Amino acid sequence: MRRTLILSVILLGTIVPGAEIFGAPPQASTPQGQVNVTEQGFQPSSVTVRANVPAKITFLRQTDQTCATEVAIPDYNIKRALPLNQPVVVEFTPKKTGEVTFMCGMNMFRGKVVVQEK
């Protein structure tokens, strides 16, 4: 069954969390493209997706001790409120390879989406 699940994830283009962190030590990956919002910022701060495949990133704010009460992805004109302890799914289809920045509303915490070839 595990092989079937992994194959399904690859075929559907599900996000695979990365380990590159802006100025912080590497963090454990979060399953299913989830990014947690903590006092330290976005964790993990990097996720990997495939170009031209619909992507879903779930943001979960876990603390009130942060300015990251919303997330923005300017390249895709996305801005979403992040209510405490409520998962917020952000969906978009990246069109080209490279890096796309996401950030809190005050641009103090940042992360990136790494878009790779199919």
Which terms summarize this structure?
six-stranded mixed sheet, 118 residues, single chain, Immunoglobulin-like, mainly beta
Report the span from N to C terminus. 24 Å
What structural class is derived from the secondary structure elements?
Answer: mainly beta
CATH level 3 topology: Immunoglobulin-like
Shape: elongated
Annotated CATH architecture: Sandwich
Descriptive overview:
- The structure is a single chain.
- By secondary structure, the chain is mainly beta.
- It has one domain: Sandwich (Immunoglobulin-like).
- The longest helix is centred in the first third of the chain and has 11 residues.
- A hairpin with a 4-residue loop joins strand 6 and strand 7.
- 9% of the residues lie in helices and 42% in strands.
- The strands form 2 sheets. It has a 6-stranded mixed beta sheet, with no helix packed on it.
Could you provide a short overview of the structure?
This protein is mainly beta and about 120 residues long. About 10% of the residues lie in helices and about 40% in strands. The protein is elongated, with a radius of gyration of 14 Å.
Helix and strand arrangement:
Elements: H1 2-12, E1 16-17, E2 34-38, E3 41-43, E4 46-50, E5 55-61, E6 70-73, E7 78-81, E8 88-92, E9 98-104, E10 110-116
Parallel strand pairs: 2-5, 4-10
Antiparallel strand pairs: 1-4, 2-3, 5-8, 6-7, 6-9, 9-10
